[in-house]
């Protein structure tokens, strides 16, 4: 027995890329209704979803649709409905107006995600030059046994962490100030690791993408050697879909 796995919502006039396959290598198809369409495909009910391959298949379908320039509202991983009729009655019909409005809003846009992480030894050098009290304490502890200098080492770690946080906040603010004017909307996430300073998503018009990427290159030039930047995209608007994210 199978159910219908929901990948996302797009325009009813879209044609999917040929032989587009999703979870379990099952073919994805469109369920159309009232100007909108759900991208869906069968999945068996005798197993739980959630493997790495499942997640990659979910992303692959959405990104293949978005790569052709079609507007797509990504659904969260794991959304299923009993059958194609339920897709129409429970999803498309009740949400047709909100889906249509969102699809119109993101038409002609892509998401670009920028991540940045410090080059640790370079940033530590900056902190020591800029904060003489930290450099002095570090020098005092040189050659001191771990036991004798325990509390001072704890204090040194706290001072470095505080300085790193302040520097990361300032650098992230600078990046957003430089890039936000080239995007329609921006979502900044809290970085997950200490050395990460930037994890931001930008909703960018397709005709402004080149300009946005030049701004990223400019930022990379300013930060050359101290921050590693990674630009990911174009992507479906994962961070900007509202109705589509409720799946």
Q: What is the typical, i.e. mean, pLDDT? A: 91
Poorly predicted ranges (pLDDT <50, ≥5 residues)? none
> Can you tell me the overall shape?
elongated
Q: Bin the strand percentage.
A: 25-35%
Q: What is the number of domains?
A: 2
Radius of gyration: 24 Å
What are the secondary-structure elements, in order, as H or E? EEEHEEHHEHHHEEHE
The total count of strands amounts to 9
- What is the count of helical runs? 7
**Which structural class fits the helix and strand makeup?**
alpha+beta
Task: State the end-to-end distance.
Answer: 21 Å
Biggest β-sheet strands, sense, barrel: 5 strands, antiparallel
Approximate helicity band: 40-55%
Give a description of the structure.
The strands form 2 sheets. Strands 1, 2, 3, 4 and 5 form a 5-stranded antiparallel β-sheet that branches. Strands 7-8-6-9 form a 4-stranded antiparallel β-sheet. The protein has 7 helices and 9 strands, in the order βββαββααβαααββαβ. It has 247 residues and is of the alpha+beta class. The two termini are 21 Å apart. 40% of the residues lie in helices and 25% in strands. It has helices at residues 52-67, 84-92, 96-106, 120-130, 132-140, 150-179, 209-222; strands at residues 2-11, 29-33, 36-44, 72-74, 80-81, 109-118, 185-188, 196-205, 227-235. The protein folds into 2 domains: 2-107, no CATH class; 110-235.
Provide a brief overview of the structure.
With about 250 residues, the protein is an alpha+beta fold. The chain contains seven helices and nine strands.
């Amino acid at each position: 027995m199978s159910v219908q796995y929901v990948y996302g919502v797009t325009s009813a006039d879209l044609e999917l890329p040929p032989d587009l396959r999703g979870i379990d290598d099952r073919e994805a198809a469109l369920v159309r209704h009232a100007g909108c369409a759900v991208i869906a495909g069968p999945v068996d009910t005798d197993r739980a979803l959630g493997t790495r391959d499942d997640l990659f298949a979910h992303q692959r379908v959405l990104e293949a649709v978005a790569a052709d320039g079609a507007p797509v509202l990504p659904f969260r991983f794991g959304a299923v409905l009993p059958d194609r009729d339920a897709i129409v009655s429970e999803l498309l019909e009740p949400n047709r107006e909100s889906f249509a409005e969102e699809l119109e809003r993101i038409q002609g846009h892509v998401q670009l995600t920028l991540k940045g992480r410090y080059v640790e030894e370079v940033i530590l050098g900056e902190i020591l030059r800029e904060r003489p009290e930290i450099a002095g304490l570090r020098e005092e502890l040189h050659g001191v046994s771990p036991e004798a200098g325990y509390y001072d080492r704890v204090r040194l770690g706290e001072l470095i962490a505080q300085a790193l946080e302040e520097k990361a906040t300032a650098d992230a603010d600078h990046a957003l100030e430089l890039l936000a004017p080239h995007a329609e909307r921006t979502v900044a996430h809290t970085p997950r690791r200490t050395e990460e300073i930037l994890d931001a998503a930008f909703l960018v018009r397709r005709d402004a993408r080149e300009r946005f990427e030049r701004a990223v290159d400019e930022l990379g030039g300013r930060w050359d050697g101290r921050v590693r930047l990674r630009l990911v995209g174009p992507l479906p608007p994962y961070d900007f879909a509202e109705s589509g994210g409720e799946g």
